[in-house]
Sequence to fold (458 residues):
Amino acid sequence: MDRRAFLRATTLAATAALPSGEGRGQQTAAPGETTAADRVLVVNEASNTVAVIDPRRNAVESTINLTSFDEDPRPAYRYVTAGVPPTAAEMIDKPLYHGCIGAHGAAASADQTLVALTGRGSSNLYLIDTVHPRVLGNRPNPFGSATTNAECISSGVLVGRDPGAPAFTRNGREVWVPLRGEDRIAIVDTGRALKEVAGTPSGAVRALLQTVHGPSHVIFSGDGTLAYIVSEKVARVDVIRVNADTNGYARPQRAAMLDISQLDSTGCTSFEQLTPDGTQLWLAHALGDSLSVLSAHMPFAPVGRITLGEMARPHAVAFVENARGRAAYVSYGRVSASADGGAASEIAIVERGASAEDRKVAKTFPSGGRKARGLCVNPANTLLYVAHEQDEAAGNPYAGQSVCSAFDVSDPYSPRMIAQIPLGALLLPSGELPNTKSTSIAYVRPRSGIRLGWAGAG
Fold:
């Protein structure tokens, strides 16, 4: 049985076999927690696709195509040739392939109508319309027919070597993109980028800001005046004053270069997150198996450190605050044996109510998949979504597929799994491309005025 037939068979079998209420079926969210506009976007690095989930149904409604397969009717340019899907490495070596390579970080604009997404291997930035989920800048395919795609993929904006997770400035004028292969931040003019992806060369990259070695992540303070830049190569945090001019464009000035080697001797900070009140910066140290907390304001002093346990391999941090408590969730990259004999990863719950000195992991719970990565929450802080890098192992209901897990976190310290969502595949004219290796996730509610873009993609 080929992979496509296997995926269809296992999905149908799993759907039929799962009783409702056991935490693995597709269950709807409670009224008031979601709206018709809400979407969860899951970025898949191996397939170069974005799965779009409707959180009202907890099911994939569409897949955004970032590949250039099947734009040309000739066999060499198609995804599947002679009935055999290529491996991930072979996919991007197809002749004249010009699609995304290594779809990675994603972040929403302040009004959440745009998501910026990077291609690590193709060195570019894409812009996605979240109202009608699609890549901006695609053009009609001159080879368009019943056997090809109707559109050719946009080339995006060329930003530099190995771009990581981007971030919109608070006013939306710019997208800052860390370039891990260049030790710089590409500062992209959003307006010019929209013109450039539409085919009008506009010089979208306004400036290149020299920063720490191997910048991995950048986020902005709540008031938008500061940028915090962390690294996966050195134990440093670069704090930059945005210093916006009268038109809202940055005139960067360094506020501080922080040495955090006493907090993380491994020098590998893969992710950072601000607390909802904007007073603290939480850092995830992927090789140090720990979190550290800094004040988000001058002099940016250390506030605490949280040990997670050997080989936890933390990645993303998400905060949940509601009427029943405050907690921080941390995704563990470690894959270990699950209670049912399969393979799974964990999410840690860190106490937020305790004093800085007493903060610790209160408990962990299964992530609902293998190698948990990105985390995001809904505006009401009652739903948590988890992306996973690895496919489900044999013996699990969705074996061979990537899944996104949904949890009811209305009680932050007693999360309840409500859905394990198989991400399925992109249907191309020549065959099905499975959505695989989910690295980043974002919950969006376009035009809501609620800041979500800086609170969960990783």
